[in-house]
Here is the input.
Amino acid sequence: MAEIRRDPITGRWIIASTDNPMGPEDFPVEEHRVPSTPCPFCPGNERMTPPEVAARRTNGGQANGPGWTLRVVPNKFPALRIEGNLNRLGQGLYDMMNGVGAHEVIIETPDHQKNLADFETVEMVPVLELYQERCRDLQKDKRFRYLLIFKNFGESAGASLSHPHTQLIALPIVPKRVLEELRRADLYFSQKERCVFCDMIHQELSEGERVILETSQMVCFAPFASRFPFELWILPKNHSADFTQIGPESLRDLAEILKQVLHRVQTVLHNPSYNFILHTSPLEATPHEGYHWHLEIMPRLTRVAGFEWGSGFYICPTPPELAASFLRGEKK
Amino acid sequence: MAEIRRDPITGRWIIASTDNPMGPEDFPVEEHRVPSTPCPFCPGNERMTPPEVAARRTNGGQANGPGWTLRVVPNKFPALRIEGNLNRLGQGLYDMMNGVGAHEVIIETPDHQKNLADFETVEMVPVLELYQERCRDLQKDKRFRYLLIFKNFGESAGASLSHPHTQLIALPIVPKRVLEELRRADLYFSQKERCVFCDMIHQELSEGERVILETSQMVCFAPFASRFPFELWILPKNHSADFTQIGPESLRDLAEILKQVLHRVQTVLHNPSYNFILHTSPLEATPHEGYHWHLEIMPRLTRVAGFEWGSGFYICPTPPELAASFLRGEKK
Here is the structure.
């Protein structure tokens, strides 16, 4: 019989199909077709993007020319624009504001063909440092309430360009998904004086069956109430609310575990499309003591359908315990 | 500049791309490939499904044999099963229960090739009557808290079989998406003694720019804070919380507007995949005075990506005013 499970962070329920669970070979293998059109993220094509806002050029070279190892540019088709004041407006029953925000693209390598899963730790560290650097810069803008870092890898994950890149959107509102986490985390903290994420990490490390990898600072597990098959979360083992505040040692550890986890996903699941999102504390004067930053990795192996859209429930055909045993390499 | 808009029912924010809006021809046209394997929903293959729970056989014929015009069967691979008691269990931090529920399939025609968008009103009415009949039957089961009717049409909407069918899942929990609507609708009602849906319908009919169709009892509009391009809602114009309670006249009107709306979606958007979901009042002794049943139609023209998963915000590339003008046939 299936199990109905609740995520303690968001209160979201999911249905884990324990009857006929699906393994890695039960999902269709996706072919990633690299389009042959000139790629705006490739060296030599710098003029195809808006002027860069940051870059790494260890061997010198002019801004907006080749020679970079990492490059950050505004999105050419931004969801939100940086210019203007935030105007709030009511229209009868409806609330709206103009689309002020920022939308940046972090180009993670000059090599079009390279996969983040094949990065060395020393290559991954500067990528994560750049995520932090861009957040610290955008934090200064008082119009923004939240910074969301996310990656779309592969067509099924919504990527329109295959050159390795991650996106950053600065929002004038704390988004709903983060608010849901914050509300329950705040409530838990007020009741117990403990962080619900810390308690979850403690339970996961004690039980072990959903843990995939552990480094000195970080842990990766398949969450108890996974929405998606092979969904994975990476969290710092010690309490930490704000990703932008973590030091070089934690960042190196994060680079190490992220690279290893992505490599396992690539190998075990045959290079699937995936999204990852980084949830960190909102840009507020008073920090949320009970919040804990984390990275959610969601391989796109199934389609979300009417039941999920209508209910907010998810049907997960691979229980997380089984996903973890495949990703640990115990089950083949 | 884009507009950030809030849905007054759920509080959900969306970003409407008003800068470079996408029209019907800007989305890839999906080919629906009908698989050649024997279809378990076709007449003559009745033994390929579990035994039927309801059917319409106007010209006679044995149960689980051919001759039916409509047929309801349990899902062969149910998300939840009808057998057993609901056992609630705590496991450290985590909450769970066993997967008790019901999962039925309503087969809407014996004709494998037929599209719901091509139904006549007289063919659509018995389909909707059967939705009501199944709900009324499942309502008697005290283990259930919510009945969700939903359709997945086409591969991109998660359909695994192309024969016209709709699904019904009975849940032991009121799902999150419905709770979100209920909470705000209850709050609105307690503040104003009015239904927020009724107020929304009033505003939409006065402004008119997002309205697609209207019958004597029903209205269809593109919601102000559409998550998806060409998202459409159908609602009864007069206050009504419970779909299962509506009478023959309303049901006939719903059949008429649904058929017309699906036909316009099919024509204008080139037969896209879509989901529809029916939100009605939960199975509670005390009805929610401020709730209003409705049908949400979501054509699957774009992919949901990392930003949406991470934020709960949606980027809608076609503002609803533009979608409505295309669907009204004013803009081509």
Q: What stands out?
A: Chain B has six helices and 15 strands.
